[in-house]
Write a structure and sequence with these properties.
- It is built from 6 helices and no strands.
- The chain is mainly α.
- α3 packs antiparallel against α4.
- The longest helix is centred in the first third of the chain and has 27 residues.
- It starts with 10 loop residues before the first helix and ends with a helix.
- Keywords: Membrane, Transmembrane, Transmembrane helix.
Length: 140
């Protein structure tokens, strides 16, 4: 029986994985801050304590999910690549919808989300990153 050594992960895939980890950790930290924001006097007076807490909890859960996807992506999981693509595109669509509904804030969040999506997704779907993901593991 022949044992072959797995190919090294391409550098662009490693950069994408690091960016995904940073995004997930930032979501968790922002979720924690949102949970603590429920104790601000403004939130208590306006009756926003419960919605802010739910939003913070959702951000924490999503952040942990993104960190889990980054781990799967680092191991070569095509499932993690597909789910991460869906999450990033949904986030881009939500930012775009928010910009269309309230354009006075400027397009900065839409542009930032588009840049992050491009930097993370292009190496995963094209070039050596895509070849590495296709060859590395079965679809798990």
């Amino acid at each position: 029986m022949t044992v072959s050594t797995p190919a090294r992960r391409p550098a662009l895939v490693t950069v994408a994985v690091v960016l995904v980890y940073i995004t997930g950790i930032a979501d968790v930290l922002l979720g924690i801050l949102a949970v603590f924001a429920r104790y601000l006097p403004e939130a208590e007076l306006d009756g926003l304590a419960f919605p802010v807490t739910v939003l913070g909890a959702a951000m924490i859960i999503i952040g942990l999910g993104i960190v889990a996807l980054a781990s799967g992506l680092a191991r070569g999981s095509r499932f993690a690549r597909g789910l991460l693509t869906a999450l990033l595109l949904i986030g881009l669509a939500l930012d775009l919808t928010g910009f269309v509904l309230a354009p006075e804030g400027g397009p900065s969040t839409v542009i930032a989300q588009a840049v992050v999506a491009a930097v993370v997704l292009l190496p995963l779907w094209f070039g050596p990153g895509a070849r590495w993901l296709r060859a590395s593991r079965p679809n798990v």
